[in-house]
Structure formats: C-alpha cells, structure tokens
Amino acid sequence: MTGYILKRLLSAIPVLFGITVIVFLIMALIPGDPATAILGSYATPENVAKLNRDLGLDKPLVQQYFIWLGNMLQGDFGTSFALNRPVIDEVLERFNGTLVLAGTAFVLCSVLGVVAGVISAANQYGLADKAITFVVLLGISIPSFFLGMMMILFFAVNLRWFPVSGMWPIYGDRTFSVLLTHLAMPAFALAVVATGVVARLSRSAMLEVLRQDFIRTARAKGVHERGVIWRHALKAAMVSIIPVLGIQAGFVLSGAVYIEIVFQWPGVGRMLVDAILKRDILLVQGGVVFVAACYVLFNIMVDVAQSLLDPRIKT
Amino acid sequence: MTKALKLTDLSKTFPVGRSLFGKSTGSVKAVHPLSLSVEQGETLGIVGESGCGKSTLARMLVGLLPPTTGQIEIEGAALDTADPAAFGKRIQYVFQDPISSLNPRKTIRQIMEAPLKRLHQMPAEARRKRISEIFESVNLREEFLDRYPHEFSGGQAQRIGIARALAANARILILDEPVSALDVSVQAQVLNLLADLRKTFDLTYLFISHDLAVVEAVSDRIAVLYFGSVVEIGPAEEVFAAPKHPYTKLLADSAPVVGRALTPPEAEGTELPDPLNPPPGCAFSARCPRASETCRAKAPRLTPVGASSEVACFHPLSE
Amino acid sequence: MTSFLTLLARNRLALAGGIVLSLVVLLALLTPVLPLADPDVTNTSNRFQPIFSDGAVLGTDHLGRDLLSRLMWGTRLSLAVGFAAAIVAATIGAGIGIVAGYYGGRIDNIIMRGVDMLMAFPYILLALAIVAALGPGLFNALIAVSAVNVPFFARNIRGITVGIAHKEFVDAARLAGLSNTRIILSEILPNVIPVIVIAMSTTIGWMILETAGLSFLGLGSQPPQADLGSMLGEARSALIANPHTSIVPGVMILIIVMSINLLGDGVRDALDPRLKSGALSRPMAATRVDRAEQPPAPTDQGLLEVKALETQFHIKDRIYRAVGGVDLSVEKGECLGIIGESGSGKSVTALSFMGLVASPPGVITGGAAYYEGEDLIGAPYKRLRDMRGRNVSYIFQDPLATLHPLYRVGDQLIEAIRAHRPIGREEGRAKAVELLNAVRIPNAEKRISDYPHEMSGGMRQRVGIAMALANDPDIIIADEPTTALDVTVQAQVLTILDDLRRSRGLAIVFITHDFGVVAQLCDRVAVMYAGRVVETGGTGDILDAPRHPYTARLMACVPELGGGKRRLEAIPGLPPVVDNLPAGCAFADRCDRAQDACRSGDIALAQTGNHAVRCLYPVAQEEIA
Predict the structure, then answer these.
(1) Which of A295, B247, C194, C374 has the fewest CB atoms inside 10 Å of its own CB, making it the most exposed?
(2) A207 to C131: CB separation less than 8 angstroms, yes or no
(3) Distance (Å) from the C-alpha of residue B24 to the closest C-alpha of chain A?
(4) Which helix (H) or strand (E) holds A251?
(5) Which residues of C touch B87 (CB under 8 A)?
(6) Distance in angstroms (rounded) separating the CA atoms of residues B272 and B287
(7) Mean pLDDT, to the nearest integer, of A63-72?
(8) Three-point CA angle C329, C332, C335, nearest 5°
(9) Which residues of chain B neighbour A10 with C-beta distances below 8 Å?
C-alpha cells in the first residue's frame, strides 16, 4: 500500500511540473509587458525597464521560467502588486475559505448524489426514480450563480432564514453554528450541479452492475434484496463512481468561483477573478498553480481510495 | 516438395508491467521458439487449452502481431515484413467470433469488396462477379449482400467471414476456433463447408481449437500446444488414440466421452505454471506422473518418435 | 436515420425538449427581423420598469434598456457561442482521441499525458488563465471554454476508439489490405460518431452554462453587447430591489439548458443500442409471475416437480416463448441432465424455479415448480428468498463473472451461510475452510482470503460449488458449470460434483450441451428444443437409442473423440426463433421424417415406460442398429 502511494506521489511530479509549464506559457502569451500594467500607462520608459529588470522579465523565457519555478519551490510566489502583499499569504488565507465551502459542497454532493442514484436505480421507472430524475435534470440545468441569487432573494431576503452573504458576521462571535448558517446556502447552491451529475452516474453505474452475473449469484444465495443493492451492487458500482467523484471535486472547486462572488464569500475564486480584472498577473499565476497542485494531490487520494476498494488494481 | 507454410523458430514475448518511466519490468513468453511446417492441401490441427499461446501463434501467422524471433515462409518464400496487406494475399484468417469480425456499420457487400479492391485492385464489374462466385461456393444467397451484419445468425455470419477470407484469394487459411462460438447443429454445417472448400480450392488449413473431437475430425495432422510449446505432433488418427506425451494423454482422458466412466484423470489442483516465472525444465513436469529430475532441470526438445510423430518428452509413453 | 428520429420522437420528454429548443432557436434566428427596440439604447429616466409595463413587456434594466430586446439578442449570442464551443471542442477532442486510441503505444502515451495534464486543472482555473492571458471578451471566452472541454472529449473518444480498434473487424480490414487512414475513416469513425454525437448532445448545455458563467464574471461579453450571462451579472447588484432583471435572463438560461439536456438524453437513449433491446433494465429481486390459469396440481413425483412451466420474454411488442410448457421431475439423490442448444430454453427453465430469470423482460406466464409439494412459482418473495440457497442452490457458468470481484471468497462463502442463519466470525471462518476442503481446494486456510481474480478458472468454479453447498441444500441446479473451463479442469470439476452428489445424497439438475458430460454424470436426461422437452428418459436409453429425430441427429453431428477424420452429419437449417414458432413440431422444417401432420396441432409427449418422446414418427429401434 505505502509503495503504491509513494508511486502515485512520484508520478504526480511530472504532472505538477507540467502544470507550472502550462500556466507559465499561458501567462507568457499576455500582450504588452506586466511592468506597464503595474506602473500604469504614465510610467517613464526608464522605470518600466527597471521594473522589468527587477522582475527578471528581460531574460529569455526559459530562464524566466526556471527562476519563477525555483522561487516557488522555496515558497516564494512573488508579491501581488494590487494588494501589495506576498502572493502566498493571500492565497493561503483565501484558500481556507474555499476549502470550507467546496469541501462541504463536495461531501454533500457525494453523499446525496450516490444515495439518490442508488434509490433511483433500485426503483427503475418507479415513482422515486421519476421524481429523482426530474430533480436531477433541473439541478444540472440551472446555472449555480442564478440559483444562488434566487436563494438569496427567497431564503435570505424574504424568509430571513439565512444571512445574505459572507462567511462570518461583521460583528459577533465566530462560532461553528454561525458558520453553518452562513455556509448553508452557498454550499447547497454549489453542490446542486455536482449532486445531479453524481446521481445520474450512480444510477447508470448501479443499473449496469445490477445486470451482472454476480448479482444473480447473491440472489441465488438468498441474500436479502437490501443487501444485494446496498452491499453487493453499490460496492461494485463505487468502482466507477469514485473516479467521477474525483472529477466532480474539480467541478465543485470551479463552481466555487461563481458562488463566492454571488455570496461574497472570501475565497480564492473571487480573488482570482478580481486579480484578472486588475491584471495582477503574479497573483493569478500563484493562485492557479497552488489550487491546481492541491487538486492533483486530492486526485491521488482518490486513486488510493480506489485501490483500497478494488483489489484488482495492482498496488 | 515445397511446404505451403513453414515456421522456423517463431516466438513471441510480451512485455509486462510498467515501471515509473514506462519501461517494462518483466516479460511473458507467450510462444516459445517453434518450428512447424504444413504441406500444400493439408489441414494441421493445433489444439491446446486456454493460455497455451494458440491465438498468439495465429495472429503472428497472419501478420497482426510481429513475431519476436523467427521467420515465416509461405510456399518457399520468406515473409519478413510485418505489413498485413502483404500477408493478406497469401494467407487469410477466419475469426472466432463471427459477429464481431464484421463491421456493424457496413453492408456485407462493402465488407466483401474491401479485399478485392485493396489487395487485388479489381474493377467494379469484376468484383461483382467474383463476389457472386464466392457466395455461391459458401452457400449464401446473394440477396444477403445488401444487409447489415446484425441481421445474421452466428452460422451465417461465420460463412460470410469465410467468404471474405476466400475473396483475398489466399491459399492458406488460419481458422482460429472458427466453430467454438456456434451451436453444435450449426457447427457441423460450417465444418463440412470448410472441408468442401478445401477440396474445391486446394486450400491449406491451420485449424486452431480447444475442442479435441472437432480437431480430430477435421485434421490430417495435429500439434498439441502446452504453455507456448508444441509438445506432440503427429497424424490425427494417432495423436489422441495413442498419445505419446503425458499431457496429450491427460487431454484425451479428460474429454468426456459417451460410454466412459467418470474418473479423475489426474490429482486435483494442478495448474499451469506461472508465465512470469516459468519453470526451468519441462513446463508439464509439475503435473506429470512420469516426471524425473531431468524433466525438472531441462526442457525437452521435439524429437521424432515412430514413423511420422514427434514428441517433446524425456519419457514418452509407448503403447 | 428515420428509425433514430422515430425513436427520438417516441420519447415524450425529448420531444418536448426538442420543441422548446426549436422555438428558442427559431426566435433567436428571427431576432434581427422582429420589431424589437434597440437593445443597446439607454434611457436612464426609464430604468427598472417592471414586467408588463407600457412599451416594455419584460420591463427595463438599470440603464432603461428594453429587457425583451436584450433577452432576445442575448439568447442569440449565448446559443451561438455555446454551439460553437461544443463543435470546436468535439471536433478537436474527437480527432485527438481517435488518433491516440487507434495508434496506441508512444503516440497515445504522449497525447494522453498532455490531456491528463490539462485535466489536472479544475477546469475553471484553466479557463480563467486563458481569459487572463487573452483578455476578457466573448471570443476569448469561447476559446477558453472550448479549450477546457477538449480533454474531456479526447479522453472519452480515446476510450471508445481503443475498444473498437481491438475489435476483430478492424483486424479483418487490415488483412483486407486497408491502410491506417482508411481504417480510421471507414471502420473506426462510423462506429465512433454516435458516441461523439452523444457526448456533444449531453455537453452543449454545459458549455452554454460555462460561457454564461464567464460572462457573468465579467470576463465574457463586454458592454454594451450582452449575452445571457452578462445580463445576469449586470443585474446582480439590483437583485434585491428589482429581481425581475435577474430572473428574466436566469430563467431563459434554465429553459435553454433544460431543453437541450432533455433532447440530449433522448438522443443518447435513441443511439444506445443497449437501450433499444431493453438490456439496460434492472432485473428485479424475483421474476415477475403472471399466470393466466391455475397451475396443474402436483402428483407427488420426486423432490422437485415442474409442471407445464412457461416463461416468456417481453421485449418491446415481441413475445419470446423461451420456455413453452416444460414438465420435469427430480428425485432425491438423482442427477437429471437437461441438454439442448443455445436458445432451447434450458437455462431459462432452470432459472425459473427460484425466480432468477431477469425480469424485466422475463415473465413466468404459466405452470408450477413444486418443491416437496410447495409451489415455488407462486411463492411470495420472502419465502422464495428463504429457500434460495438453503433448499435449492445454483452453480452458474462463468465463475469469474458470477463471483463478486471485490469480496474475498471466504467472505462470500460466509455470507451465503449468514443469509440463512446467524453465524459468528470464528465459526464462519471454520465453516468456509471446511467448504473449500469439501471441493478439494488445496491450502483452504490461505485461499479463503483470496479474491476471485487471484484464482484460476477451475478454482473459482470450485468456490462456486462450495457456495452452493454452504447450507446443505437438497437440490443443486448447475447451469453449464464447466462450459467455460478447459477439458482437464472440467474433468476435475465434474468428478467433484459427482462425488459430492453420492456422498451427500444431493439431487442435481445439470444443464449442458455436451452429450459426453451427460453420459458421465446423469441418471436421466431431458432433451430440449425451442422451449420444450422433446425427449426424456434414462441416460443409457436415450444415448443408445434416441427416438426423437432431433436427438438422434444432434448426437450424430457432434464429433466424438476417437472417430478420426470424417464428414459430420450436419442438420440443415437453423433452430427457430422463439418469438415466431411454427405450429406443430418446431423441428419439422429441419427434419427429413416430417409429414404434413407434424406441422399442425400440439404434439404430446408420448410415454412408453420411462422413455417419453414428442414426435409423431419417432425413430424406431431397428433403424438405429
């Protein structure tokens, strides 16, 4: 097992390396030079040239890349000019917020999605199946940002059940229950699409498995139908559901960008959009690389979970 | 006399496992160096259980798989190119699963035309004529030509597969389990058709199967494959009637035969050796009642026994 | 193509989606010629007009622009960008996927590493990075959305291509002299296109959402031009005071995406061949029973007595009579062989006893199976479950598919016991070892913690037998248990079964197509053809002197070891398809003894002593000699 984890971690190194190359290349496409963007269009040519030198932008591209990579490996992601603060500090602080939001949504969508999918498949063409299929269809068709806005309008403004936005109240205690009331709406809005996708896939994975011969064997043994569905079938279906959960984690992380903006949630997504609009290149670069790296690590965990479930994967 | 097909030291090794850098960490010898020859007009049966390398051998013979070592000679001329199209005119293949060997989105006519067009550059009118001739010879109605594969039963689809192989005008056919996917009542029809075609077109067959009785019924000579090697080869009427290799005897004794009582032919629980870690000596030695120290240390070579048989065994069975 | 459209139209939800989508697309196309206000003319004095106000049916936005007009123009833009992104992503992705999947090896490796790299990003990070580099704008958003979706298509299509490239018809094309390019175009592509269409139809909605999302963030369409996403983005600040400015574009996105998804699901279902045949239905816990008539009463013959059993498959509007009135019985300790070709109904008969025929589409429409006088067919599920594995147990054909791949074999054995009585950990383990020893698996203590894939075929089938023995049943139904095994392994497994039956007094119903196996194992045989028993009697009687022409000819056309090279006595023609059985004898068309009388009316199973035959002109004894 440890060998397998080690092997997966090692194999992540080229992927992480590739991620930095892709991000660096995309950023190198940016027309004009960042120094002008930082200093504004009134900057003197001398100042621009000096800043370019300071940032290492006068060197060849390959050299620039390795300088950037080397700095990152030492934890130096550069300084955000718009915020005037080290990129890594800002990213870490914001990532915390995203983690709370996306993590909750991910748990929600995994549990609800799988359960809904199993129930749907077990009652194929029945009332529960039809109801779930309809709700799921609605869920994957509604833009999460629109759903979030409607939830604010209805649950926060009209019913006053939840606060309109933010992660914490401006005044007052930062307790867990306060966090929950703030978290409820954004986490739900974020989870809806992914829940729909997971439910659909779980349903079809379950239907696929339920036709297998080993299900007939379980029934022939006299195993109770509950055991057939929730143990035999679900365990086998998880083999195809788990990789999708890994992909959905990426979608939840992506959707968080919209939800953070709608709910004014202090997360890394909102930070990135602001940074793009302000052309704060280093912050964009640092944020993208950091989040992507975290996602790569998360996917290694998914693979490990998969190998624990399925003994046929060579460890 | 030139042989229709001659194999010299043909072998295939597959890499297995992947290290971090994409290098293979081990290898499996699917077919050990093997030499065989088939006379013009002869049917050589190749029989073996799963994992004995018979399909790998078949795919090498038609160029779908490049051999690791050795060479293939067809009618005296060496073929060392791995280009399937060059093989196609001389040697053709009939697949095990008749349905999946036909493209579901093409009509039978399109399927039949491909070898005529690509291998023989035949013009349209000639193709039409040739296809009707071939269909006639495999007892298929021409109206089938404009249908799609899913409209046919297994037996019909296998006839189409045979017709396609004939269209290439090759004189050697590799028949890879051609009837094992068919029902017994249809199986006999296809086997008889194959026998008729062989006579009509003077074809040479390599008939691969796991079914001893079928192989015996269609072959002139039979080669028994075990763990990637030929362990015995001889005339069809002798191989199972008077087996010389202990494995051949085990096969013959295991086949269920009407009128023979059910007795376990060997001690239970014996299995094929691990291909990743093959034994140094005879691959059958662990299961063999006659095995000696020599067998476990050294692999026996195929040596002539009697008039027309060869056997790879240090202690062959005599009458 | 037409059949595809009719299938699609039959799906009412897809039809509704298609109609709504066509309407939206039509309106979007007509927008330039409709009498609408200019979408970009601002009139701040007229801002935030409510819905249904004069001159502005949907009201106005924060700059006083007509919402209806902006909605129509925005829809037009969103649709165009969404479709364009989907087509670009699908084309590039499919191209990459096909090349990687077909050529395999190093090309595949390099391409897929690149794809993996792109998929290592949560998609929006990549899209944001691209937009950050190219600058905000609708066209750049289109590029970003296409680019992040290319890897999904590439990976999906590659998987399908790998599957197709290994199909035998591709090998056949290669042997027919086709070049690689030609194989890709004429063999691979036509088989991949349905998958591309499915992938596209199920992702267009998603692409529209994504482009709307980028516009919502202010990174897509730039003012004054607006697509639906940027309309929502602009309206967000006025959400609480003037919600209609948000609701209007939001609902429009919902309508578009939902109708696309409905249509997309319909397209997928219509193109999926498995759905056509109803193969994706989930089998229920027990076969559906729908008996029109009261089943015949038991006559107290043996342990298991089957009376006039009828099982059908209802697929679409066709009825396949897989089992058309079968009578059988098994005594305690007896081995009954059921022999027949595929489609003869032998397996379905055996699966019907315990309600294990997949349903849908299977339905038991008549007859009874009495176990010690109790009708199993009519039994409630609870009773059936209780008897499964305890009184009657099964051994199936392919042991790799019939054992659960993710549970250790020991646990599967223990579960078989636990389904019927509580058993502790230690006792369960001991019992599992005992069972494996009973089927002569060497090293049973160690092998109980193996997974099925770690065992050989023969060992797996022994586990299958051990599982059937777990609760000391009276009857074991073995459905072609050795067909998937090699001959040497088959001999071992048959010996084990035979020994167990003698030592434990088990009754066995053994289903096979092999006369040799029947001869070695069974006391009595029933020969089935087209869903009915055509001949039954003692094994020796039937094998020595078959009376039904089908039995006789079937035996003659099977080569037997020791016969030497010879011509086989083939039976002409094909077995009938059971959804269209002829009147009278189903074998008549292939039989050289058939007379007119054979082709009309029901032919009864005529009993003489222990031997019964369903034939008007049976083979006489002297003919065989």
Answers:
(1) C374
(2) no
(3) 15
(4) helix A234-262
(5) 175
(6) 9
(7) 87
(8) 65
(9) 20
Return the pLDDT at C625.
Answer: 45
Single-letter amino acid code for the residue at A70: G
pLDDT average, residue stretch A159-184:
84
**What stretches in chain C show pLDDT beneath 50?**
625
Q: What's the CA gap between A194 and A200, in Å, rounded?
A: 10
Please list the helix, strand and coil fractions of chain C in percent, rounded to the nearest 5, in that order: 50, 15, 35
Model pLDDT for residues A197-248, shown as the tens digit of each residue = 999 999 999 999 998 999 999 999 999 999 999 999 999 999 999 999 999 9
Distance CA A215, CA C403 (A): 9
Q: Which residues contact B280 (CB under 8 A, 6 or more apart)?
A: B296, B297, B298, B299
Read off the tokens for C18.
């298609």
Q: A93 to chain B nearest CA, in Å? A: 35
Q: What is the C-alpha to C-alpha distance for residues C321 and C367, in angstroms, rounded to an integer? A: 13
At position C604, the amino acid (one-letter code) is A
Exposure of C109 in the CB half-sphere (CA atoms within 13 A): 6
Q: Which chain C residue has its CA at the smallest distance from B119's CA? A: C177
Q: CB contact, 8 Å: C288 with chain A?
A: no
Of C520, C521, C517, C554, the closest CA to residue C535 belongs to C554
Distance CA C476, CA C394 (A): 6
Beta-bridge partners for C305: C329, C370
* CA C619 – CA C360 distance, rounded (Å): 40
Site of tokens 């490049």: B66
Interface of C with B in 327-356 (CB under 8 A): 341-343
Per cent of chain C over pLDDT 90 is 53
* List of domains in chain C: 20-29+56-276 (1.10.3720.10)
Q: Distance between terminal CA atoms of chain C?
A: 59
Q: Spell out where C248-404 has E strands.
A: 288-289, 304-315, 318-330, 335-339, 362-371, 374-375, 392-395
Q: Tell me if B153 and C498 make a contact (CB, 8 A cut-off).
A: no
HSE of C171 in the Cβ direction (CA atoms, 13 Å)? 23
Q: Is C308 helix (H, G, I), strand (E, B) or coil?
A: strand
Residue with tokens 């079809």: A204
In this predicted model, what pLDDT tens digit does every residue of B105-162 receive, in sequence order? Answer: 899 999 999 999 988 889 999 999 999 999 999 988 888 999 999 888 888 999 999 9
C20, C116, C118, C128: best to mutate for the A interface, most A CBs within 10 A: C128
Token pair, residue C579, equals: 């959804």
Residue contact C169–B100, C-beta within 8 A = yes
Nearest CA in chain C to A232: C404
Q: What is the mean pLDDT of chain C?
A: 89
Q: What are the φ and ψ backbone dihedral angles of B234, each rounded to 5 degrees?
A: -175, 180
Interatomic CA distance for residues B76 and B3, integer angstroms: 7
Residues of chain C contacting A192 with CB distance shorter than 8 Å: none
Indicate the residue type of A37. A
Q: In angstroms, rounded to a whole number, what is the distance separating the alpha carbons of residues C63 and C399?
A: 71
Residues 12-31 of B with CB under 8 A from A: 20
Chain B nearest-CA distance from A11, in A, is 7
Buried-exposed string C47-72: b where 16+ CB fall within 10 A, e elsewhere: bbbeeeeeebebbbbbbbbbbbbbbb
Q: Name all contacts of C350-354 with Cβ < 8 Å and 24+ positions apart.
A: C350/C394, C350/C477, C350/C479, C350/C509, C350/C511, C351/C287, C351/C479, C352/C287, C352/C309, C352/C311, C352/C323, C352/C377, C353/C304, C353/C306, C353/C377, C353/C392, C353/C477, C354/A220, C354/C384, C354/C387, C354/C388, C354/C392, C354/C394, C354/C477
Please tell me what DSSP assigns to residue C240. T
Q: Are strands B91-94 and B172-176 parallel, antiparallel or unpaired?
A: parallel
Neighbours of C129 (CB within 10 A): 28
